[in-house]
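Review form for a predicted model. The reviewer records the input and the model, then writes brief findings.
Reviewer: anonymous (R2)
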Amino acid sequence: MQVTSLRSLRVSFHSIPSFNLIPNTSLQNYPLLIYHECFPQSTSATAIEAHLRSVGVVEPQWRYTMYETTHFHSTTHEVLCIASGRARVCFGGEDNPRKVEAELGKGDVIVIPAGVGHRLLQDLDGGFEMVGSYPKGKDWDMCYGREDEKAKIGGIKDLGWFENDPIYGNEGPVLDAGNRSMKM
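Model under review:
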């Protein structure tokens, strides 16, 4: 499958400070990444899943929209590929003054580091659907920034980063993000 060339790919890197009990990017300093228009508009969810499997970094696990409640994962990073529709989403916690709100659409890819809060604000067209994927061998959990989750949050700092980019393989923005984090 053809994806946007790395030379032409527009990528947004976002560092989001912790807010209340949502650690966001503060524990590992890996940024939230958005690959804008990475997949062609004609790409189906099945084709996205096949591409992810062929690269072999993440395993597609579900197709669904995004939950409307702010949540994060403490056990793994997450890769979301927009398969249909458009939506407004919030990263970092809706009351966080340094949150990131973005309009995402078909073909976009989001790499969400463990600990980054995220939620759907509005499905703009109806039918917003993503392919949700996680690094091979990782299981995801659900955290909501509650007091009883503090022990889980502590484990985020020990999670490894991607050894290869989930879309591009042995080069790509995820690897640049890892190098940026090491220099911080």
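Findings: Strands lie at 10-14, 32-36, 58-64, 78-84, 86-91, 100-105, 109-112, 118-123, 129-135.
Further findings: The first strand starts at residue 10 and ends at 14.
Recommendation: see findings above.
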